[in-house]
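Hi there,

I know you've been waiting on this one. I reran it after we fixed the sequence typo, so this is the corrected version. Both the input and the resulting structure follow.
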Amino acid sequence: MEIHKVCLDQEVRRAAAADWLAMRPLFHPNLVNGRYGDPTVYVETLFEKRSLLFDIGEIFSLSPRKIRRIDQVFVSHEHIDHFVGFDHLLRLLVGHEKSVQLFGPSGFTERVFHKLQVYRWNLVETYSSDLVFVVNELAAANSILNTRFRLRRAFVAEASVSRKTLAGVICDEPTHRVSAVILEHGTPCLAFALQEAAHVNVWKNRLLERGLPVGPWLRSLKQAVVERRADDHLIKIDGSAVSGNRLVPLGALRDLLTVTAGQKVGYVTDVADTPANRGAIVALVQNADILFIEAAFAGADDALARHRAHLTTTAAGEIAREANVRRVEPFHFSPRYVGEQQRMVAEVMAAFRGTHC
């Protein structure tokens, strides 16, 4: 009996380890320019040849291969340190068949248009590939203006289309969704939350018990769950040992699966420390696994931070604590604190842990 228990415990541990590997986060974010440089977070996607970018400051440190993987860019606002990298992105994508979604605040479409029109595109009709920018402007909390720019048309703006948003979700895909709120920085400034789709894992022992095969059909099953299909949605099971190929309602297969929440990443920068901004940020990034949040000024320089409409180290830590995030990554430190990174991070962490005075 004891030997059986030990073997069972080992099997449980192996299964848990396998589940942990299966539930690795899809997204791997990286602060491109460190805590002092231009705000930019590059998010690499596991298993897929695509990446996301939050703000687009200087990106020369990113390899051309990484930049060409980018297909979604979320811009908080168009101050130069958050938007200067767009030209480098454009330079590396021209000549490649590519479509990029750009998201930004009120007035964003016009600024992208002027960025594109500063160059002459008189030879683009000879290009064999097309580059498309789809600009999504969050002009109001519940409305997005969508405008398309094509290289082959010399980036002339096509007719804009307005669409409604629900609960702040500005991008909704099978693998992830991104939500945004409009904050105040003397100009509208967006904060973002990236939510990975739920992890769906299959219990192989339950497949065995029901005589169901392991095979490509399981991808369709997982996708149906991620896309929130109804129970009557039919799944084609290929090569079933019970009755060959057959169609089975999704509801009859849910017991084969375990669904766990995906990773959540928050991105907040360049915001005034006001009650309204704090409330909106906390609601947006609640329970995030990682929160990238600006901490431009030291806690003792609160008056200067308020004058510049930025957060202090103390404010950043307090917001992260109130939002119950698991990990906080402060950045966008002012150059006045060069050489004091350890102090700045310590101030954020003290406020995050509730140990500051």
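Quick highlight: The chain is about 30% helix and 30% strand.

Best,
R. S.
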